[in-house]
Amino acid sequence: MGLKINASESAFLILHYQNGIVSPKAAFAVSGTAASVQKHNCIEKTAKALKAARNASMSIIFVNFELRPGWPEIKKPPFPLIAAVKEGTFIRGDWDASLPKELAPAPDEIIIYNFNSNSFLDSDLDRILRLGNIKHLFLAGVATNFVVESTARYAVEIGYEVTVLEDLCAGFKDEWHDFAITQILPYYCSIDKSQNFITGLG
Predict the structure, then answer these.
(1) CA distance 149 to 104
(2) What CATH number has the domain spanning 7-141+151-200?
(3) Cα–Cα distance, 40 to 25 (Å, whole number)
(4) Residue 47 CB partners (closer than 8 Å, separation 6+)
(5) Residues facing residue 137 across a β-bridge
(6) What is the domain partition of the chain in residue ranges?
(7) What are phi and psi of 165, to 5 degrees?
(8) Rounded to whole angstroms, how far apart are CA atoms 196 and 165?
(9) Phi, psi (5° rounding) for residue 162?
(10) Against a cut of 0.85, is the pTM above it?
(11) How many CA atoms lie within 13 A of 107 on its CB side?
């Protein structure tokens, strides 16, 4: 049975797909995310899914980890995951905080700024989704076992239906991605492939 999608009540969320996380040139590339994204052609696949979502008039929302100069949004000292990010990077408007050209947002598409792994925490994401009558979230993102897992779990707990498009996600290591996809997320949501998402949109 194919994936059934009601585009008018669904949103495609692209989580932390920023140059500083997915580009081999980025300082955060040492985490392994850029290599995983490149290995699995995640940007190309996500761009195809994004085009299909646009053609279906589905709501599209980008969630970006973006900060102000001086990082006033981050507690001092930061917890280890944030401490691994070079201070002074991911400043709103800078290259590393921006999305690759293949995933550049259209003028009418929403960008949510967040400061944590959970896309809903300290953001207006939930308000925007509910005002748009969105019930089903389709997730693409990096890293799988951080922003994708945190967002999916929280979204399900507050009442959304969630599908993680696993081939549009990547982890620091393949093993971490695989563990989240096979051992954690199936207890919360559906796992599917981007081609099924594209086909389901018609």
Answers:
(1) 23
(2) 3.40.50.850
(3) 17
(4) 102, 103
(5) 11, 162
(6) 7-141+151-200
(7) -90, 95
(8) 9
(9) -130, 135
(10) yes
(11) 0
